[in-house]
Write a structure and sequence with these properties.
It contains 8 helices and 7 strands. The chain is of the alpha+beta class and 251 residues long.
Length: 251
Amino acid sequence: MSLGRHQINAIHRALAPGSEVHPGLRLAHGLSEWPNAAEAHSKHDLIRSVARIKTPDFYRQALQRWKNLTGDRQRFCGFELALHQRLYIGVTRDNPVETGVTVSHSYGMPIIPGSTVKGLARASAEYIERQTGEIRRDVIAWLFGEGGDDGESGGIYYHDAWWCGNSDTPFVPEIVTPHHTEYYQNGRKAASDMDSPIPAPQIAVQGSFYFVIEGAPEWTAVAAALLRAGLPQWGVGGKKSSGYGRFRLEP
């Protein structure tokens, strides 16, 4: 099915800077033409326009409904943690600006996928097992499952973490400046301190997230403790070695 000119114009207006559009749609479809190296400013402009998108009221309402639904402490364990700096999550998603961020399909606000939450909690548990032996393998199997075709699933469910920061704007423009482009691309030219930096626009997330673990309360308490230990120490997402993706220690 082909679109008429009035339909195409309506799409362009919806994606134009200043419109309250789904941030994921803006990143994926906000450029009318694929930019080349000489038009890098168009990527910067698009990311800055996404960073100006404010949290819509309907998302705040949806977040409150989710908190109400997960308020039963006999079934859920929910808590909020604030980022220490910023978060790179889903950076390698394919789109015209060659950078991305993981957002909810329905609301366009940042999320940390439940699989990422579960993976970090498991890494925390296995680290404790190796270092101290204070957590048993059968406990780890119950919390996370054995995996594989014949393995049983775990007894705990790890939900996506919802963004819940106090800021009106969850997205933040970032810049990375790789200095050795030719070396990274083909390795034929040795890296040199004389290489010129090439600014590359990126997009990150700021604020806080609401984590939810579902299951029997005695087990969700253990899973939450593992998660609270891992988020400040290792973090999630990309560029963790530079401090991104780590969360603040709770008092």
